[in-house]
Predict the structure.
Amino acid sequence: MFRWTRRSVMAASVALAATFAAPALQANAESVLRVIPHADLKNLDPIWTTAYISRNHGYLIYDTLFAMNEKFEPQPQMVDTYEVSDDKKTWTFKLRDGLKFHDGADVTSEDVIASLKRWGARDGMGQQLMGVMEEMTAVDASTFQFKLKEPYGLVLESIGKISSNVPFIMPKRVAETDPFKQIEDYTGSGPFVFVKEEWVPGSKVVYKKFADYKPRSEEPNAASGGKIAKVDRVEWTYFPDQTTAMNALINGEVDFFEQPANDLMPLLEANDGLTVEINDPLGNIGFARFNHLLPPFDKAEIRRAAIMAMKQEDYMTGAVGDQKFWKTCYSVYPCGTPLENDKGSEVMATGDIEKAKAALEAAGYDGTPVVIMQPTDIPLLSSFSLITAEKLRNTGFKVEVQAMDWSTLTSRRAKRDPVADGGWNMFHTWWIGADVIDPMAIAFSGNPDKGWFGWASDEELEAARKAFANATSAEEKKAAAEKVQERLSAIGASGHLGQFFVPVAYRKNVKGLIKSPVQFFWNMSVE
């Protein structure tokens, strides 16, 4: 991780002031919220990828049928009214009046159905919902209907899920794109318009207020309520270097820093002009993801041996730092949430190199190199990658670390090719706690054809996930969730690296920040 000194900070401040002087003096009547996003936006399709930078982009330009409030209760968003038949198998929804796409066309039932079909092919909860769906039909231009094969307890939770993949509503012509190919038309349904002609990959993304967007009348509450664009433009400026980004915030050249590195916190917290706070009460779960298709991690025993070497305290102290921002957690569901449990947690709680060595030898590791993709522009993930590399080498693995930026990684991780042809063996990421709060998370999929990158395969796991979706009582849900955790441990699906919290930092003149696991940019203003 980058280490700053007072001299380097002062030098960077002077250089940055000169860099930004001209734009700062430009007369511009438009109100602008200037943001440092947590990563470069390279992939613009939030259904094709689970990357959070693409999700955040999606929330700016698309809307959803339902949305979660701070209690994770689904609330109507684009939907006005809905009703459910007595047998719980027919759901009828009516859209709000006045919903428009950015090209001026009305949002219709046909657009909704096409969008849900595409989302349902990629998302974990969507796949489960589509599995019980007999048909989706357009009753009229603003009314659509679900007919289910059997009652299903997560209908609204599925179409109102808060994070990746979010069931964003796109025009029918766009949503008919193959779900395993990226869209090329970014006509949205949300409060801001993506300004494609001002997009500079690796540098800048621009959104402008959509004048014809019709927000709900309720107060904003997490993802739900009124999405009011209180600025004319939102501009993302990407900084590969954290010190440069920090100084842009300190100097007033940007307003909001989404994910500053933890080792910069003392300087940010000491600045009277800034607010530093944790915006997500659930935090994040660190993941080390294996490619289950390629050697050596095509064997569960070898994946489990690698997990045994992963001591959470080492990852959290090495990558996050101050213990006030992290805690160990040996549940695949975030600690402090209803489904937290310790079933099958022995492997992830081992954290012992000698035991990992013995397990690796017993598994018959043949010396196949492990290629770890290291995203150098995200300090926390870069540190995770290097910590894992050291632990695996100490365990007896041959390891090759390949450096790249996060946007390149998110493209490359979709490849199932052999390593020699651009494939990979491991990458590191995190999921926000809200994304892995129950077995429906795509991160927990055991379907290699429709599941998350890494492509785990386990029929028992899929059966347990289905049992959770069909459960009708809290006891049944808990039992199914524990079975899912047992299977994830048995197959060594992923390494779990700890639960951590990343503060945001922003200037005092920024108002209207919404508390949520996801960073939203509506309701925010700059005074």
User: Anything to note?
Assistant: Residues 1-27 have pLDDT under 50 and may be disordered.
